[in-house]
Structure formats: structure tokens, C-alpha cells
Write a structure and sequence with these properties.
13 helices, 570 residues, 13-stranded antiparallel beta sheet, six-stranded antiparallel beta sheet, Transferase(Phosphotransferase), domain 1
């Protein structure tokens, strides 16, 4: 059984029904509808039993009186049959299924109308769904992989026929009488060559817990076969770990995690899991579609090679040496955790982010990825950016009181206004046309404040918003602390954020740069919005919370970071 919160997430965020009872904006209780159902005739079918019900459609166990066989019959409900968009979506589903001929895909038997009410029929499967058997695979990863090889090949066949599923999940994978998996429910499928998408403008279709970042964000033009690949990764993760990578009771809880949070390595959940299999899963779950597997067929091939004891063909993300996916962190906070400092949440995000050697598994590029270098000996990170770059190091520390620190050095100014620093309170919001990342930044500006007699440096503390992925930014009113460059040993500047619930103190070593409440920072942001003309932030009201993301920021510079750490405060 799933935890109650996951059950709630499934029920409250369902989007479509096909085959076996998933909901789309449910308007009537499925159980009460089933209890009230009376067998009836529908054309040349006898509707015997309701087996699935939702706001748009209903599925029956029906008898085809012409051929004398039982089938699953799906038809639109009531007013939905007169709605052009819903009728179009229903027809798209029928066309999608009709184009597919694969042993692990649900076929369509017949499509037609009775009294202007469209319907189609499918084979009636007596087996259960994967959702009902999800726990059977956790201790048997080989069984899980064998299953997903078949599912991935079925999805590849759909993609080869220009069909995106967009709603893969355990309840949409059924088992036939031979215990073979059958991928069903193409209710929110998209025919790639069909032109316009049959959704309401800006509508996000699918089940949020299984959506890719681009699908969850509503970036409809970016949804592709690689979006289904993300979902295959979620399914495999859930099979071998026993839970999804991102969980929550509502759509509002799950979606921000998908957009910004780092996927916890499956090995952290199941230490005995084979590392290569874990890396295959993480390859599917890369935030950027270009970093994932590029076809479901390649996933199937690598999973089969894993079963056969062979090396994968696709380059996988490394937990240790891949410069694009690895940062080194020194975390004295681990000692404090062991000493008994309690966090306010169920557990610290330090736990899934950092292994026993203090290495970060998977940082997240909030903005487009830029060159990154690591020095394992000195534990130094160097990032080169000719624009505004944000790199998330932790999605949620979940502590009321903590200190986030790093030593920062600007090595080279690539353009005017070169700076680098650390941010807190990071979160992503939509302004209706694009996503905007908002946070509180504390940075070192080495080149912007010069005097003729003494080279000067400055620290700046300010709210900032940056459009994704263009980097267009609004920088709010800021506190500036200037001082002679010679006070920085070898150019390194110790930057510190100290957080006490809703109060934030920015420091350079022991020197306070600014101290404000979250409400005061929000006020600065709102005032600055009024004068901004390059970025649409009029509808943005970010909450600069201590529980939001933390990371590093770079602007027009080559900059280095070292001694990065989080300390819990008493």
C-alpha cells in the first residue's frame, strides 16, 4: 500500500480515465456511481458493469451481442459528448490506439457512435494493474527491470508511430491473463503529426507525480518523447525503491519539487541496489531533456544489457567524476547532526544530497548549464558564466535556524558588473508566459567599485528575479558594504547567510552586510517591480522562505567557491 499522502496525491491530481478507473476532474463519486448503475443496452452492446468512471468518460464491462464476446467499452459522459474539445480528445485517443500494433499495447477493437455519443471498445483484461502490484518488485530489481524492458519497448513503438502517451503511471499498465504488461489509457496522448493540441490553452494534462519538468511547468511546446522517458524513469524508480522520487498530497506540493528539487539517488533509499541500475534510472530523470535518454528504445536496450551483465551503451551520469553533475562540499554540519541537533521537518535535505564522503550527488542548474571545473584535492568549484547563472545545491534544508556559508573569489571579469555569491530562498514561479526564478543573493563584486588610490571590493545583498532561460533579471534595492580589496586574503571572501525562521542576516565574515525579515525583502521586491521594464514580474509574489532552495550565483565572471557548508544553529 502507498502512504496516505501518496494516495491523496493520486486521487487529487488524476487527470483522465481509460480502461480501469482513473479520474479526470471527478464530479461524482465512482463508488456511488457503480452502486447506482443498472445494466442497459447501448447500440449492439449490453452494458453489464461499470469498471471505471471519471468527469469525462466511463468504462464498462460490456457484451458485444453481434460477436458474442465481452469487451471493455469506453464512452463519453453526458454533456462531455457535446463538448468539442472533449470529443476531439476522445477521438484522438481512439486514433492513437488504432495506429498501434504491439503485444504490450492495448489495442482498439471498434470505434463508433450511438445517438451521437462516441465510443470505442478494447479487450477486457481480467488481470490487475501495476498499481496493485507495485510492492512486489521492491526486493526483486531484476523482475522490475524485466517488466520495464517490455514497457519501454511498447512506448518506443508508440513514439515511432508519432504518439506521445503523456500519462504513463502504474494504474495505466494492466496485466493480461498471461501476466504480460499492457500499456493502456492514451486519453491525454498527443499525435505528433496532428497539428494543434486538443487541450485548453495552457492546460497541463497528465498525473503530476509522474510528469516531466517541462510538462509540469506547462511548457507545452517542449513536451516530446523525452517527456515520456522521464516518466519511465519515475516508474522504474518507484518499482525498485518502493516510492516515487517526488511525493506530496496535492498537485501544489508535487509540482515545485519536480521543477526544482534534486532527484534523490535510489542507492540512498536502497543501499544494496546495483550502482549501474541506479545510474540508468537517474539518466532518465535528468531535468534537461537533452541530458536524458533520447529514446525509449535506448532505455530498453540498456536495461536488457544490464540483465545480461553487459555495460550500458549510453553514457550515464557519474556519482563521482562527472564534472557536469558533481560538486564537492565540505559539510561540518554532519557533525552537528550526529551530535543531536533536531530538524523541524521529517529529515534533513543534507541526507539525500550528500554521501558519506561529503560529495553532492546531483546539483541542479536552475539556469542553462555553463562550464564547471572541480578540484578534488582543494574541494574547490570554479564556474564560468557570461550571463546570470544560478546553481542549486539543496532544495530544502528544512531547519528553522541554520548558517549557510562559502568562500567566494572572482577570478576574472568577463563583462562589466562581474560578481559571484550565494543565494537562499530560491523558488520558481510562472508569470503567465515564462518561468522566473526568485531568490535572495549575497555576492562579492570585485570590479564594480574602484578608487584611484585603493582597489575596492563590495558585498551586495538584494532580492533578484531571473527569467528562465533567458536570464533577463530584475535586481531589487540592495544593501552595499564596500571595503579595500587588500582585506581579502588571496581574493577569497567569506560570505554567510544566517537564517532564524523568517529573519535573514547576510555577512562577510563577522561584518553584517544587511539584516532583514522575509517580509522586508518581499517589500523591496514589490517596490522594485514597479520600475522594471525588461522582465514581467507584476504577477509574481515570491515568498523568500528559509525552507526554499539554496545555491551559488555567478554573473559575468569566472568565479571559484570553496568551504561550502551548512551548519545548524541551536
Amino acid at each position: 500500500m502507498k502512504p496516505d499522502s501518496d494516495q491523496a496525491a493520486d486521487e487529487s491530481t488524476r487527470t483522465h480515465i481509460s480502461g480501469r478507473g482513473d479520474n479526470l476532474d471527478t464530479v461524482t463519486s465512482p463508488q456511488s456511481a457503480k452502486q447506482d448503475f443498472t445494466p442497459e443496452s447501448f447500440g449492439h452492446f449490453e452494458l453489464l458493469e461499470m469498471i471505471g468512471y471519471g468527469g469525462m468518460g466511463v468504462v464498462y464491462r460490456a457484451k458485444d451481442t453481434r460477436l458474442g464476446r465481452e469487451v471493455a467499452l469506453k464512452k463519453l459522459l453526458g454533456a462531455a459528448a457535446d463538448h468539442p474539445v472533449l470529443r476531439g480528445r476522445f477521438e484522438t485517443e481512439a486514433k492513437a490506439i488504432a495506429r498501434l500494433h504491439h503485444p504490450n499495447l492495448m489495442p482498439i477493437l471498434e470505434y463508433g457512435q450511438v445517438n451521437k455519443q462516441p465510443y470505442f471498445t478494447m479487450p477486457l483484461l481480467s488481470g490487475v494493474t501495476l498499481a496493485e502490484r507495485i510492492g512486489d518488485y521492491q526486493k526483486e530489481p531484476r523482475r522490475a527491470v524485466e517488466l520495464m524492458v517490455k514497457v519501454a519497448r511498447a512506448v518506443q513503438h508508440a513514439h515511432e508511430n508519432q504518439i506521445l502517451h503523456r500519462d504513463l503511471k502504474p494504474s495505466n499498465i494492466l496485466f493480461d491473463d498471461k501476466d504480460e504488461p499492457i500499456v493502456a489509457d492514451f486519453g491525454v496522448a498527443k499525435l505528433v503529426d496532428a497539428g494543434a493540441d486538443l487541450t485548453a490553452t495552457g492546460a497541463v494534462l497528465g498525473t503530476p507525480a509522474y510528469m516531466s519538468p517541462e510538462q509540469a511547468a506547462g511548457r507545452l511546446s517542449e513536451i516530446s518523447a523525452r517527456s515520456d522517458i522521464w516518466t519511465l524513469g519515475v516508474l522504474l524508480y518507484e518499482l525498485v525503491v518502493g516510492e516515487r522520487p517526488f511525493r506530496g498530497a496535492t498537485r501544489e506540493e508535487v509540482t515545485p519539487q519536480i521543477l526544482t528539487d534534486i532527484v534523490p539517488s535510489p542507492i540512498l533509499k536502497v543501499p544494496t541496489l546495483d550502482e549501474t541500475l541506479a545510474r540508468i534510472i537517474l539518466k532518465c530523470l535528468q531535468k534537461r531533456p537533452d541530458d536524458r535518454y533520447q529514446s525509449a528504445g535506448r532505455i530498453a536496450e540498456d536495461l536488457q544489457r544490464w540483465l545480461d551483465g553487459q555495460k550500458p551503451q549510453v553514457k550515464l551520469p557519474s556519482r563521482i567524476s562527472n564534472q557536469r553533475r558533481l560538486l564537492w562540499l565540505i559539510l561540518p554540519a554532519m557533525a552537528l547532526l550526529l551530535a543531536g541537533f533536531w530538524l523541524t521537518g521529517p529529515r534533513s535535505e543534507l541526507d539525500p544530497l550528500v554521501d558519506a564522503n561529503g560529495r553532492l550527488h546531483q546539483p541542479v542548474w536552475v539556469t542553462p548549464e555553463v562550464p564547471l571545473r572541480t578540484d578534488a584535492e582543494s574541494k574547490t568549484i570554479t564556474i564560468r558564466s557570461e550571463g546570470r547563472t544560478f546553481l542549486q545545491l539543496a532544495s530544502n534544508v528544512r531547519a528553522k535556524r541554520f548558517r549557510y556559508r562559502a568562500q567566494v573569489r572572482v577570478n576574472q571579469a568577463l563583462k562589466p558588473g562581474a560578481a559571484a555569491g550565494i543565494f537562499i530562498g530560491g523558488s520558481t514561479h510562472s508569470n503567465g508566459t515564462e518561468n522566473v526564478f526568485c531568490c535572495l543573493a549575497l555576492d562579492l563584486d570585485r570590479f564594480g567599485f574602484e578608487r584611484q588610490d585603493v582597489p575596492m571590493a563590495a558585498n551586495r545583498c538584494y532580492p533578484v528575479a531571473a527569467a528562465l532561460p533567458t536570464g533577463a533579471a530584475l535586481v531589487a534595492s540592495q544593501d552595499v558594504h564596500k571595503y579595500p580589496m587588500e582585506t581579502l586574503a588571496d581574493g577569497w571572501c567569506p560570505l554567510i547567510w544566517e537564517i532564524d525562521t523568517d529573519n535573514f542576516v547576510a555577512k562577510r565574515g563577522d561584518q553584517i552586510v544587511c539584516a532583514k525579515s522575509s517580509g522586508e525583502f518581499q517589500g523591496l521586491f514589490r517596490l522594485s517591480k514597479m520600475a522594471n521594464s525588461t522582465l514581467n514580474v507584476q504577477n509574481l509574489y515570491p515568498q523568500f522562505s528559509s525552507s526554499n532552495a539554496i545555491g551559488v550565483c555567478i554573473y559575468n565572471s569566472d568565479a571559484s567557491f570553496r568551504d561550502i557548508g551548512i551548519e545548524l544553529l541551536p
